Batch of 3 targets.
Target 1
Amino acid sequence: MPDYARRFLFLAALAGALAVVLGAFGAHALKARLDEPMLTVWQTAVQYHFWHALALGLIGLLALHLRDACWLMRAGWLMLAGLLLFSGSLYAMALTGTRALGMVTPFGGLAFIAGWLALAWAIRRG
C-alpha cells in the first residue's frame, strides 16, 4: 500500500472518530449551553466534518487503484485543510460566540471545492 494511501486512510479514521465525538458532545453537553443558532452552527460543522472524513477515506482507497498520486494527494490535503478551516472555524464560533471567526469559514469552503475538483481530475486522469 502506498504511504500516502495509508496516511489518508489513517487521517480519515481519526477525522471520522472525532466527528462522532464532537457530534455527541454537541447533542449532549452543548444542547443546554448553546442557543439554537449556535447549536445549528455546531451541527453544520459536524455534518461537513463527517462527510469530508469519508472523502479522505475515499481518497485513500482510490490511491490503491489510480496512477495519479499527485492529484489525489492534492485532493486529500485540500479536503483536510477545508475540514480544519470550515468545520474548525464553525466549532470555534459556536463555542466562543465570536462571529468574526465565521470569516475563516468561506476559505474552508473553497478548500473543499478545490479538493473535490482535484479529486475529479485525479479520477479523470486515472
Note: The chain is about 80% helix and 0% strand.
Target 2
Amino acid sequence: MKVPIARLKSSVLLRDSVIYGISNALYAGFPLFMLPLFTILLSPEDYGLIEFYRILSMVLIPILGLSTVQSIIRFFYDLEETDFKVFVSNIIFLHFFNAIFGMIFLFSMSYFISEKYWSIIFYCIIFFLSNQIIEILLSIYRAKKESKNYFLIRLACIGSDIILLYTFYSLVDHFDWTFRVLPNVFATSLVGLVAIFILFKNKYLLKFDKKLLVTAIAYSSPLIVHMISGYILNIGDRFVILYYLSEEDLGNYAVSYQLGMLGNFLFTSFNLAWVPVFYEMLKKNELSRIRRIKIISYYLISIFSVLMLIFIYLLVKFSPFFESYAIEMGLVTIISLAYMFISFYKFEANYFFYSKNTKRLSIITLGGACITICINLLLVQNIGLYGSAIATVCAALFMFLMVKVKSPKYEKNVFQD
C-alpha cells in the first residue's frame, strides 16, 4: 500500500503545483505581462511612483498586520476546527483595527505630507486591508489543499484588475501613476469584500479570544523583522538608487529587476503547494522523500533560471516594448542569480517555520538586509545600478548558506520534540 499512497501524494502535489503555478503566472506574472504596455504609456518617473506604491503596500503588511497571516497554515495543524476558526477570526479583527488606526494616523499627518504621496499612502492602506483579507482566505484554502478555490479567487483578482484597467484605458486621455494604482486598489477591494462574505459564510467571523490572538502574535511577531528584512532585500536598493541616482534610473532598475525575478516563478508556484505537504511529511518522518524532492527542485530551478534568461534576452533584443528603457542583460543576469539563491533559501526556511523558530529565521533575514544596504551604500555611488544587483546576490547567497547550515538541526529537533 505504501507505493500507491506515495504515488497519490505525489500526484496531489503535482496537481496543486500546476494549479498554483497557473495562479501564480496569472497573478504575480500579471504586472510582468502588462509591463510592455506600462513602459509605452508611462514615463520612468511615473513607473517609479508605481514602484513606491508597491513598496509601501508591502511594508504595511508586517507593520499593520504584524505578519499574523503567516501563522494560519502552521496552526491549522495544531488546532481543532472550532479553535482554528476563532484563531482566524482574531487575525481578521486585528487587521481591521490596525487599518483604522493607520488611517487615523495618516489624516493626522496630512499637513506634513505632500498631496501626491498622501494619496499613495491612502491607497496603500486600503490595498493592505483588502489584500490581507484575501490572503487569509487563500491561506485557509492552501492548508486544506483546496487549490481550485484558491485559483478562482486569484482569477477574480486578475479579472477585475484587467476590466478596470481597460475601463481606465478607455476613459482616460492622460496616463500617469494612477492608471496602474487605482484599478489595482479598486479590484482588490472588490475581491476583498467577496472574501469577507465567504469567511463569514463559513463561520470564520465568530468571536474574540485573547489567548489565541496572543498565540498568533507570538509566532508571527518575529516575522515582522523577517518580512521587513525581506522587503529591504527586495526594495531597499530603490531608496539608495533614488538618493544617489535619479527617478529615471529607478524606473530602469525596477523593470530590469522584474525581468530578473522571472526565474523565481517556478519555486514560488511549487512552494504554495509544497508547504502543506512538507508539514505532513515532517510529521510522518518522511525525510528521504523530502531530500529527494529538494534535490530535484534545485536542479529544476537552476535550469528554469537559465531558460528564462535566454527568453528575456530575446524579448529585450527583438521586441519594441523596452525602447524607452535602458535594460542591461548583465544586470538582469545578476538579479536572476540572486533569486535562484533566494529560492534555495526559501526551501530550507520551511524547516524554521515548522519548528516555530521564527526568531532565528528573522535574525538570518535581518543579516541579509544589513548586507544589501551596506553594499548598496558602498557601490551604487561608484558603479551605479550594478552595485544594487551585486548587493542583492551577496545577501541572497548569505541567507541560503545560513539556513542550509541550520536546517538539518531543525530537521532532527522535529522528531525529538
Note: The longest helix spans residues 210-244.
Target 3
Amino acid sequence: MTNSAPQQALTLKQSGIRWLWLAIVVFIIDNGTKLLVMDSMGYGWPNRIEITPFFNLLYVHNTGAAFSFLSSAGGWQRWLFAAIAFGVCGLLTMWMRRTPVTNKMANIAYALIIGGALGNLFDRLYHGFVVDFLDFYYGSYHWPAFNIADSAICLGAVLLILDGFKADKTVKDH
C-alpha cells in the first residue's frame, strides 16, 4: 500500500525554479547566435562557410520541426509547434517548481529544454521559421541543420533519460 499523505509543497527557495536562469542563458545565446548568422551570412548552400572537413556554417530557414518535419505543410504547423512549445514550457516549469533544487540533473534538463523551446518559439512567432545554421556531415551525407536551441533540447532530453536511470537505481537500492 502506498502512502497517500499529501507531499508538502516546496518553497521557491527549495524548488528547482531557481534553475530558470539557465533557460534564460540558453535563450540569449541561441538568439544571439541566430542574429549573428542572419546579419553576417548569406542564405543557403552557396553561402556556406566550410569550417572543417565535417562541419559547415549554413544559414537556412526551417518552417517545420526537428528534421524539417511538416516543413511543407502550408503554414498551420507554425501555430501547432508554437502551442506545443508553450505547453511544454509550462509543464516543465511546473515540474521544476515541484522538484527540489538539489536535484541538479533534472532541473538542468528542464531548464535546457525550456530555454531551447523558447528560443525556437521566438523564431517561429517573430520570423515564421526557425533559423538553423549548424551543418555536420560525413562525405555527402549531411545531418539536418540545427541550432543552439535544438542542441539544448537534445542535451536536456539525454539528461532526463540519465536522471530516470539514476532515480530507478536509487529506488532499487532502497
Note: The chain has four helices and four strands.
